[in-house]
Design goal:
The structure is a single chain. By secondary structure, the chain is an alpha/beta fold. It folds into two domains: 18-213, P-loop containing nucleotide triphosphate hydrolases (Rossmann fold), CATH 3.40.50.300; 228-260. The longest helix is centred in the C-terminal third of the chain and has 23 residues, at 228-250. Helix 1 (18-27) packs across helix 2 (42-57) and helix 5 (124-132) packs across helix 6 (157-168). Strands 3-4-2-5-6-1-7 form a seven-stranded parallel β-sheet, with helices on both faces. The protein has helices at residues 18-27, 42-57, 68-81, 107-116, 124-132, 157-168, 185-194, 228-250; strands at 32-35, 60-64, 98-101, 119-122, 141-147, 174-178, 199-202.
Amino acid sequence: MAFISHPLIKPDAIEKREYQLSIAMKALDANTMVILPTGLGKTAVSLLVAASRLYNEGGRVLMLAPTKPLVEQHLRYFEKYLLAKNPEGSEGSDASPFVMFTGEAPPDERSADWNRASVILATPQVIKNDLIAGRYTLSDVSLLIVDECHRAVGNYAYVFLAQRYMATADKPLILAMTASPGGAQEKVQEVCANLAIAHVETRTENDPDVRPYVFERELEYISIDLPSDLKAAIQTINALIEDRLGLLASLHFAVPTREKRSRR
């Protein structure tokens, strides 16, 4: 097995996959959305791009993920494989260059951690709140990684952060990642516009450069019955829904049929 060789990546740690290298190289040229099915290594691509930006441009890397468990997962991955250092001149140079923000730490502590660390992994809302409060800026962030980027629509914090980043960073570059950008072309275009995406890289398990790394899977489907108390709860909820939709129908509102109703 061949491994990635890079000054900021631990040796003999990351398998060298040509499609990941190809995507990472393209992502260094422009703001890029990477669409990869789960299991094909989106995080490895982000690590390659992060290592390159830190090595060539310096500054900081900010990686956003929508939930605390995802942030923790990315933190463990980056700590395991990335040889990052604290920015020159920062206080606490002996401390870890990695820091996680999820809103649980006091604001003053987050400000100090931001000024010290070179790799920040966070949920988007806490970064948005800190920027609005003026606790720090994104000026020296050389790479913004947006995980689960298909969420970047409407008023979601990703939209605000991408706009603020592109407007204030000295050397901005956005890497957006998702396994499923959405089926509607309009939504994909909205996400690209909101994140200032200029280039899209996509792979499937059937692409020739990906096939060598895809293992055959055997699927077995097992049907199980719901517990009786859960069945009763569903019947009660459905009865309430039908009652309220019946009222709306009596007031001449258009009511969707059962098969067209989403959980939302």
